[in-house]
Amino acid sequence: MEIELEVDGEDISVNHFIEQIFAGVVGGAAECLNGVEEDWKEIKLIITR
Questions:
Q1: Contact 36, 19 (CB under 8 A)
Q2: How far is CA 29 from the centre of its chain?
Q3: What pLDDT is attached to residue 20?
Q4: Distances (CA, A) of 49 to 17, 43, 44
Q5: What does the alpha-carbon distance between residue 26 and residue 4 come to, in Å, rounded to a whole number?
Q6: Could you give the number of structural domains in the chain?
Q7: In this structure, is the dihedral angle defined by the CA atoms of residues 28, 31, 37 and 41, taken in order, positive or negative?
Q8: Could you give the CA distance from residue 45 to residue 15 in angstroms, rounded to a whole number?
Q9: 3-state per-residue secondary structure call for 2-48
Q10: What is the pLDDT of residue 2?
Q11: Residue 9 is part of which domain span?
Q12: What is the mean pLDDT of each run of 10 residues along the chain (49 residues)?
């Protein structure tokens, strides 16, 4: 899995450990939702504060 992180327009490098954490948390949560198949290809998540 590959994670791209951008904060306020700036690309932030993400190491393999953080990629695995993000992918596991977001992917696992999304798969629990109705309408999301286990074989999804891409998930986009935008968080605005």
A1: no
A2: 10
A3: 94
A4: 25, 20, 17
A5: 13
A6: 1
A7: negative
A8: 19
A9: CCCEEECCEEECCCHHHHHHHHHHHHHHHHCCCCCCCCCCCCCCCCC
A10: 87
A11: 1-49
A12: 92 95 94 93 93
> How many CB atoms neighbour CB 6 within 10 A?
9
Tokens of 48: 């605005």
Taking the CA atoms of 6, 33, 40 and 17 in sequence, report the sign of the dihedral they define.
positive
In one letter, which amino acid is 39?
D
The token pair at 20 is 């695995």
Closest CA to 23 of 36, 9, 5: 5
Reference 5, options 29, 25, 23; nearest CA is 23
pLDDT of residue 1: 82
